[in-house]
């Protein structure tokens, strides 16, 4: 599914660990299965989770019994990283060592709870939000964690495509190489439907130049700018692809087009996209509600 994704050394470590101990499916990523496979003694107590080694040399993980099962499993994976990769007592360790170990452990949790080699076997939906929901359910992780992992994969896939210079694509209908024409510069046009009652343009047409498409992660769309109008006659001659949920985000009042998602979906085969302003209005309203809620 992902042809240009490159795994990190930590990710390779997790994958090799699972393969060596025959952990091959999401259903096996449990405290019981991993503890038995890796010879880890697990205790539960109403105190913060931690890892330690007993006087006899047994590797132990103490899990907070007050936590819900999902959080206990994630805590287990966090402490498992300390058991497998880290040495020393954090109580007497310099702060920067502790911080480095904790960052490593958090990355480990992301890879260990959703290994790439298992994700790559999934039949993922084309819809971004449905994919997040499926990953969350399949791997038993919070939705925000599934989103972080999938966004990470999309970003690395995008970066992989940039590294190899994927400038042409296979035509799905003929199998021939198709040359892609790019605009001289990135431009945003506004289309006003003469039959619409919507205030302002009904759609924005975003035409990306080669440099923007191949080097930028996202594109800022100014909210207060009046874009050049485009007529229907000109619009119907363009090869325009629709944006879908997640391609446009609004955070802290800034509206951005997620170029890396478009590249993931189309490669470099498309460079012009339509943004429906009714969808944008809903995205902006959601952002404003969240801002009011947390202020």
Structure explained in plain terms:
- Pfam families: Peptidase_M78 (PF06114).
- It comes from Paenibacillus auburnensis.
- Residues 35-150 form the IrrE N-terminal-like domain.
- InterPro entries: IrrE_HExxH.
- The protein has helices spanning 9-20, 31-38, 69-85, 95-113, 116-119, 128-139, 143-164, 210-215, 232-235, 259-266, 277-294, and strands at residues 41-45, 50-53, 59-64, 169-170, 177-178, 187-191, 203-207, 219-220, 228-229, 241-242, 248-251, 254-257, 272-276.
- It has 295 residues and is of the alpha/beta class.
- The protein has 2 domains: 9-161, Arc Repressor Mutant, subunit A, CATH 1.10.10; 177-294, no CATH class.
- It has a 5-stranded mixed beta sheet with strand order 9-6-7-13-10.
- A hairpin with a 6-residue loop joins strand 4 and strand 5.
- The longest helix has 22 residues, at 143-164.
- The two termini are 41 Å apart.
- Residues 88-94 and 165-181 have low confidence and may be disordered.
Strand and helix layout:
Layout: H1 9-20, H2 31-38, E1 41-45, E2 50-53, E3 59-64, H3 69-85, H4 95-113, H5 116-119, H6 128-139, H7 143-164, E4 169-170, E5 177-178, E6 187-191, E7 203-207, H8 210-215, E8 219-220, E9 228-229, H9 232-235, E10 241-242, E11 248-251, E12 254-257, H10 259-266, E13 272-276, H11 277-294
Parallel strand pairs: 1-3, 6-9, 10-13
Antiparallel strand pairs: 2-3, 4-5, 6-7, 7-13, 8-12, 11-12
Helix pairs in contact: 1-4, 3-4, 6-7, 7-10
Protein name: IrrE N-terminal-like domain-containing protein
Domain IrrE N-terminal-like: 35-150
InterPro entries: IrrE_HExxH
């Amino acid at each position: 599914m992902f042809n240009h994704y490159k795994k990190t050394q930590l990710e390779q470590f997790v994958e090799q660990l699972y393969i060596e101990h025959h952990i091959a499916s999401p259903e096996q990523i449990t405290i019981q299965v991993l503890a038995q496979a890796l010879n880890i003694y697990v205790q539960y107590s109403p105190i913060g989770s931690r890892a330690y080694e007993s006087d006899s040399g047994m590797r132990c993980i103490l899990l907070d019994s007050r936590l819900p099962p999902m959080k206990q499993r994630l805590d287990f994976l966090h402490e498992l990283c300390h058991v497998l990769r880290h040495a020393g007592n954090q109580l007497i360790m310099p702060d920067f060592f502790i911080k480095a170990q904790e960052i490593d452990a958090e990355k480990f949790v992301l890879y260990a709870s959703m290994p790439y080699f298992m994700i790559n076997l999934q039949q993922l939906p084309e819809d971004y939000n449905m994919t997040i929901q499926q990953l969350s359910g399949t791997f038993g992780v919070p939705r925000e964690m599934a989103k972080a992992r999938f966004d990470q994969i999309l970003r690395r896939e995008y970066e992989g495509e940039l590294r190899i210079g994927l400038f042409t694509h296979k035509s799905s209908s003929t199998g021939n190489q198709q040359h892609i024409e790019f605009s001289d510069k990135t431009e945003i046009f506004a289309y006003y439907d003469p039959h619409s009652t919507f205030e302002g343009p009904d759609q924005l047409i975003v035409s990306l130049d080669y440099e923007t498409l191949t080097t930028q992660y996202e594109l800022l769309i100014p909210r207060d700018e009046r874009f050049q109008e485009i007529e229907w006659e000109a619009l119907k001659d363009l090869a325009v692809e629709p944006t879908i949920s997640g391609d446009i985000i609004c955070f802290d009042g800034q509206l951005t087009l997620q170029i890396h998602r478009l590249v993931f979906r189309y490669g470099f085969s498309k460079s012009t996209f339509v943004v429906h302003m009714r969808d944008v209005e809903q995205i902006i309203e959601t952002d404003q509600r969240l801002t009011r809620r947390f202020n």
